[in-house]
Design goal:
The protein has about 140 residues and is mainly alpha-helical. It has a single domain, classed as Winged helix-like DNA-binding domain superfamily/Winged helix DNA-binding domain (Arc Repressor Mutant, subunit A, Orthogonal Bundle), CATH 1.10.10. It is built from 6 helices and 2 strands; from the N terminus they run ααααββαα. It has a two-stranded antiparallel sheet. Strand 1 and strand 2 form a beta hairpin. Helix 2 crosses helix 5 and helix 3 crosses helix 4.
Length: about 140
């Protein structure tokens, strides 16, 4: 039996399957889709950041971030606040509900990182990280 060597296909398939799984699990555990959980994780350590910071962190364009933030604000997860120094800039802050959702979602991510990592040796994990970092660096 010949092993499938289509790297791009496998990366795409793995990404879609992981996101589908995590979206379902995070929605059940924290009540938010995975993209909102990713935004919450970033805001947890960058509370008060600008839209552009979140956009860069999630590698999403401005309109996608605007829609994401609107949904999160509607669900009571974040608050927007106009910048005191720049009339065009808006800061984003986690609400208590947003922190709670983040706290509920984070263990799932940690558990699954550990589960995936346990399948490989430390040296293999270094290779995996080097590969992924290379791909990310090539296309950013």
């Amino acid at each position: 039996m010949t092993q499938d060597r289509r790297l791009f296909f496998k990366l795409n398939l793995a990404q879609r399957l992981l996101l589908k799984y995590f979206d379902r699990e995070v929605c059940e555990r924290a009540g938010v889709p995975i993209i909102q959980a990713a935004a919450l994780f970033f805001l947890r350590s960058h509370d008060g950041c600008l839209f552009k910071d979140l956009s860069e962190a999630l590698s999403q364009n401005r309109s996608a971030i605007t829609t994401l933030v609107e949904r999160m604000e509607k669900n009571g997860l974040v608050l927007r606040q106009a910048s005191a120094t720049d009339g065009r800039a808006v800061h984003l802050f986690l609400t208590d509900k947003g922190r709670q959702a983040c706290d509920q979602a984070l263990p799932l991510v940690k558990e699954n990182n550990e589960k995936l990592s346990a399948l490989f040796t430390g040296e293999e994990m270094e290779t995996i990280h080097r590969f992924l970092d290379t791909v990310i660096g090539m296309y950013t």
